[in-house]
Write a structure and sequence with these properties.
Chain lengths: 73, 909
């Protein structure tokens, strides 16, 4: 193993917090994409609306609380 | 500081906590002697020494052994997935299937068994056992208990794959029951498809293995508690320990029920015990669902362990993280019934399970939030994107992706549409591949250098491995989703051949290949590491520093950062951080309560219908539908009267009440409407289920596949809902049915003109790759007129996989020779019968004749307008018994199968 400088020569462009947040957005978008088909079928709209709204609301809350929370310091 | 709070874990500090023990028993000394002799002999060969780390301590050796065996089973399980998907691709592209139906469905079964247990469960045991010993600086003991656990695990994998005849070679006794074997499928005396007793012994060996391992962990945790822990009273437990303790609590709650259901099945098969399939299934699913969380705790533990180590700061909220571990353990064993929503269980039980299934979102929500918040404030130049960090990121994203579709399948009214479709596999593989496997790899990249004493050899191979695993996994998950959206059933090799299905099936196959190829860089890197990796020195390092150093050998050199622990002083008080956590948990709780309230009326409606609590409208058609494992027998009364095999007959717009029973296996009536409410109800032997639905207003033939896998002839097990035009009216053309493509239902058979039809049987014993065969249309005057269509069953389609000729030899040409010896004639009546709504089926005179093979046949009849059935309209008895090998010891495969039939629709003038 080579010696490692105190500060990396090529540090990450964005923080790990931002990357994990972006991946959470992509993952949530993927899950919503998967659900989207079923919300359009005529037999399902009413019965599943609560679950869809709940999931969407949780996603919004996840980012609102996450972005406004104090840092881990 | 060391964020895992393991200040006692510096290497070299291990020797002082050895539990006092006397001289081992003579038997153990005997085993030790043998082991040492074998080790010394094998260690002379560099290949064995390096791969199996024979020069290291026994704990390292066993862990490495488990890792190698786990990867081996993972590779074989991957080959199983490749085998199955290659056959589906062959089917949708019009190629000949190269595997028998037992081999195809056993590939699915063994894919699940090998990946879930041989690979994932074994690797979890290896990783957590090693972490507990190393991170807590415990001196390992009870070597032979751990060896026994490893031995039982791998013996169970061999037992579960069933007997194989080597001379003459015959591997058709592999189990084809699905990785979850819903009793009574496979149970002797109860089912047409019977597995070998080795199957049940394999499950028991598996249970013994995992329970023994859990006991081994408990002993070491007790050692730690009595020695190290006692030296630092009042100090917080290491966070990952909450999940280790949770795991050892969950293991008996998971594998215990499996012992019960397996012993019950064995008692039924071999001692004549009474069976109650639905109770047995509830017990089995207590295991089946808990297993997912036993394995899911691996990436959760990896996130809570590795993210703080990589970020050099403690988890955001220790108390919330620990609470999530407790919630996972408390809720997990209570969710099994959500796999049985469509069976006749009490509606309150299914509703309660739905509520608890929503509740388990909470610990997952806490975990995702806590892990993300742990990173808030970490400077860019204090984070290194090595392979451990990349796979941790994938596990985090995959758990969110798969986790968010969890409430979807847990919502009862939604499950009616999704149950047993490939959507479920999309959810499941998001969790398994993108989260469990990813979390496992994060741990392996962190642990292998510690195990082997060598740095990872190649950064590029590690990053290639990550990229291909992520891309392959996402392709698989998305392809499963699209196929599920289209309505394709899980475990189905005989799928409707439509352009969209072919496209996504090819995408799925490509994803499987990318995923499998993507593991080669890992294997190559691991081997190069063992043989050519630089020496890894952890002396003087804390546990966290050791992990960072191990991970660093997979990071590009220019982006590496120092591995040393750094001082960390809390500036944000706990109360402020926990206030946010509380707000997040309160928000999720309110949203879950709202979703539960919104779904409750529909959930009870579904449950009440299945248990017979709905009121029948006037004019309802009553259908007593009995599932005979591979076909349905319908006895109807109402506007339509009669007995039909594989057909439900009703008038357009008429209400239909199904009373469902079954024998041989749990089955399901699935009518996958797209423009109407889907009908999906399971019939469990020993119980009665009910379904009330309104037949479509458009007359036509609607496919009704059995939605529950029920044995090797699952693909041929498709019935038809035949919707007649209104009473006393003459059938008109099916043009309106065709114009909206049967409402978009993919399982509806294609509609073709009888005059131009060219019905050709395939190797699976169906016409034109469709079960039922194409719906033929013709026109006739009211007093009758000639109707003609052609069909053929090519000799080349007759083989061991075709139910039309029984297999009594291992000679692959025997079936064709039998046909030739019998003058190309089989003793099954092929003809036309008329559906008479007042009496049932009425044979059309002059049309019944023995089935001719290898000849171009023309069916001629004078018919009046009406709806008819054509083909072989009685189930064909099949028995697989080459050289008399089939029996209790090997398993048996019998059954009555229908596939070579369809509907003939004769319009009026």
């Amino acid at each position: 193993m080579t010696d490692v400088p105190e500060t990396p020569e090529r540090p990450a462009r964005i923080s790990a917090f931002a990357v994990f947040g972006l991946v959470a957005i992509v993952a949530a978008a993927g899950a919503l994409f998967e659900m989207a088909y079923y919300t359009t079928t005529p037999a399902l709209g009413g019965a599943t609306l609560g679950t869809v709204i709940g999931i969407c609301g949780a996603l919004i809350a996840f980012f609102v609380w996450g972005l406004t929370a104090p840092p881990n310091e | 500081m060391s964020v895992t709070d393991l200040s006692t874990s510096r290497p070299g500090a291990e020797e002082h906590s050895v539990p006092v023990s006397g001289r081992p028993p003579s038997f153990i000394r005997f085993l030790d002697g043998i082991e040492e002799a074998v080790r010394q002999r094998l260690a002379k060969w560099r290949l064995f020494d390096r791969i199996f780390l024979l020069h290291r301590d026994w704990m390292t050796r066993i862990t490495m052994f488990m890792v190698i065996l786990g990867i081996l089973w993972g590779a074989i399980g991957g080959a199983d997935a490749f085998s199955f998907q290659s056959q589906v691709v062959a089917y949708v592209t019009g190629s000949t299937l190269s595997l028998s139906n037992v081999e195809i469905y056993s590939a699915v079964t063994l894919h699940g068994i090998r990946e879930l247990f041989g690979f994932a469960q074994q690797l979890e045991m290896a990783a957590i056992g090693f972490l507990v010993i190393k991170a807590l600086s415990i001196v390992p003991r009870h070597k032979w208990s751990l060896y026994a656990s490893v031995g039982l695990m791998n013996v169970s994998m061999l037992l579960l794959q069933g007997p194989v005849y080597l001379l003459p070679f015959n591997d058709n006794y592999f189990p084809a029951v699905g990785w979850y074997f819903l009793s009574p499928l496979g149970v002797a005396g109860q089912s047409s498809y019977v597995v070998s007793p080795l199957w049940f012994l394999g499950w028991l060996a598996l249970c013994a293995s995992v329970l023994l391992w859990a006991g081994w962990i408990v002993v070491h945790l007790r050692d730690w508690s009595r020695t190290k822990r006692a030296q630092t009273p009042g100090r917080q437990y290491p966070l990952f320990l909450w999940f280790v303790v949770g795991l050892v609590v969950l293991v008996p709650l998971t594998y215990g029920p499996l012992v019960v259901s397996t012993v019950w099945d064995m008692g039924t098969a071999y001692a004549g015990w009474a069976i109650n399939p639905i109770v047995n299934q509830v017990i089995f699913w207590t295991f089946g669902h808990s297993l997912v969380y036993v394995l899911f705790l691996l990436p959760i533990l990896a996130l809570y362990l590795l993210v703080p180590i990589l970020a050099r700061r403690p988890v955001y909220s220790y108390r919330f993280a620990a609470a999530s571990a407790v919630m996972f353990v408390v809720l997990t064993p209570l969710l099994g019934i959500h796999h049985l929503y469509l069976t006749p269980l009490p509606p309150w039980a299914t509703w309660l399970t739905m509520a608890l299934s929503f509740a388990i979102v909470l610990p997952s929500a806490i975990t995702f939030f806590s892990v993300w918040m742990t990173l808030k404030g970490v400077p860019r130049n204090r984070w290194e994107w090595n392979a451990v960090a990349l796979f941790t990121l994938l596990a985090f994203g995959g758990a969110i992706f798969g986790g968010l579709t969890g409430p979807v399948v847990a919502t009862i009214p939604w499950d009616v549409d999704l149950h047993n479709s490939l959507f479920v596999l999309s959810h499941f593989h998001a969790i398994t591949i993108l989260s469990i496997v990813a979390g496992g790899y994060a741990l392996i990249y962190a642990v292998l250098p510690i195990l082997s004493g060598r740095h990872w050899f190649s950064v590029a191979l590690a990053r290639l491995h990550f990229a291909l695993t992520a891309v392959g996994g996402v392709m698989i998950v998305l392809a499963f989703d699209e196929l599920g959206d289209l309505g394709v059933l899980r475990r189905e090799v005989i799928v409707p051949i439509l352009p969209a299905i072919t496209f996504y099936q090819l995408m799925l196959f490509a994803g499987v290949i990318v995923m499998l190829v993507g593991q080669l860089p890992f294997v190559a890197n691991a081997l190069l590491t063992l043989f050519r990796g630089e020496l890894f020195d952890a002396s003087g390092l804390s546990f966290d520093e050791t992990v960072r150093r191990a991970a660093q050998s997979t990071a590009p050199s220019l982006s590496r950062i120092p591995i040393a622990d750094e001082p960390f002083t809390r500036r944000v008080p706990r109360a402020r951080r926990e206030w946010t956590e509380k707000a997040w948990v309160a928000t999720v709780t309110l949203l879950l309560a709202g979703a539960l309230a919104a779904s409750t009326p529909a959930a009870f409606s579904v449950g009440n219908q299945i248990t017979g609590g709905s009121n029948d409208p006037a004019g309802t058609e009553y259908v007593a539908l009995h599932g005979q494992q591979y076909f349905w027998n319908a006895n109807e009364s109402g506007a339509v009267n009669g007995s039909f095999d594989n057909a439900i007959v009703a008038y357009a717009g008429q209400w239909v009440q199904l009373n469902l029973t079954a024998s041989g296996a749990t089955q399901s009536v699935l009518i996958p409407f797209r423009n109407y409410a889907v009908v999906d109800v399971q019939a469990v032997p020993g119980s009665t289920s009910y379904a009330l639905f309104q037949a479509p207003s458009t007359p036509g033939v609607y496919g009704a596949p059995d939605g529950e896998y029920d044995g090797p002839w699952f693909g041929q097990d498709v019935a038809a809902l035949i919707v007649l035009p209104p009473v006393h009216s003459t059938p008109t053309t099916l043009s309106s049915f065709e114009s909206n493509n049967g409402g978009g239902d993919i399982y509806n058979p294609p509609v073709v003109s009888a005059a131009s039809a060219s019905l050709v049987a395939n190797g699976e014993g169906s016409f034109n790759n469709s079960v039922p065969g194409p719906t033929l249309t013709a026109s006739a005057p009211l007093l009758g007129g000639p109707v003609t269509f052609g069909w053929t069953v090519p000799l080349a389609t007759i083989d061991q996989d075709n139910y039309l000729v029984n297999a009594t030899s291992d000679n692959p040409n025997e079936q064709q020779e039998y046909v030739i010896d019998h003058n190309y004639t089989l003793p099954y009546s092929f003809g036309i019968v008329r559906i008479d709504p007042t009496t049932g089926l009425v044979p059309v005179p002059g049309t019944a004749a023995s089935l001719q093979i290898g000849k171009e046949m023309t069916e001629n009849a004078t018919l009046t307008p009406g709806v008819y059935l054509y083909g072989i309209l009685d189930p064909v008895s099949y028995s697989y018994n080459p050289n008399g090998e089939s029996g209790e010891g090997t398993g048996t495969q019998t059954g009555q199968v229908m596939g070579l039939w369809g509907v003939l629709w004769v319009n009026g003038p």
